[in-house]
Write the structure tokens for this entry.
Amino acid sequence: MFVHGFGDRVAQARHVGEGTEVPMPMMLHHGIEELQERMARMAARVTQSVERAVRAVIDGDPGLVKKIHKADARIDVEEVAVEKQAINLLALFQPAATDLRLLTTIIKANADFERIGDCAVNIARNGRPLIKARDNGEDVDLPPSLRELAAGAEKLLGDAVRAFNLQDEMAAQDVIDGDERLDALYHDTVQSMLARMPTDTEGLDQAGKDRRMSQDFSIILIAKSLERIGDHCTNIAEDVIYIASGEIVRHRRGG
């Protein structure tokens, strides 16, 4: 595991050549670069899981659900490893200023990426009635706002990942601003479903009514998970701004 491996490399690197000591800042920056690379790979896995979850629901592809669960197990393991790695760097080097902000923010963003992975799992799990219906050749009436919400969540996640990887403060602010649109689409989806539920089961037998109600509630739960992805993307974007400026902006939302 990295915690031991990196510590061993630190001990070995203190003296190289003929008594030449490697500067501690150089070793710290090497460790941070390695950590950032792991974060980029984890973010890519999370992004793929969200894309698969959306495709599973919209296209009715049950095969994607197993891939999402398998990927989530890897994401969970990586989340723990990244946190341990960051804590190890903090303990070894006791960084200050920008490096300290970067490491503490990586720990926070790491948790948000893992929770986005959980949202993908929830979308796949709550989408089972819809996936099963589509796989059986049944028509599933997904409200347009849900499709737009899904596309918006995927885009916002991609933007958040790029802002984090590039430490782009302006891109991070765009992510924060974009989350308001996802919130509106979530509320539109819920209101649309609540409005159609009273008449959605007309002409169906009891089994058909149960299936239709299960599908309707699935849509609402999926919409909530997509909205939560937006919230986690906003958290990540706020972390990027903190790294760049040292300014905490999360309590400024909503005026």
User: Anything to note?
Assistant: The two ends are 44 Å apart (CA to CA). The CA atoms of residues 168 and 240 lie 7 Å apart. Helices lie at 2-13, 24-59, 63-93, 97-126, 128-135, 144-166, 169-200, 206-245. The longest helix spans residues 206-245.
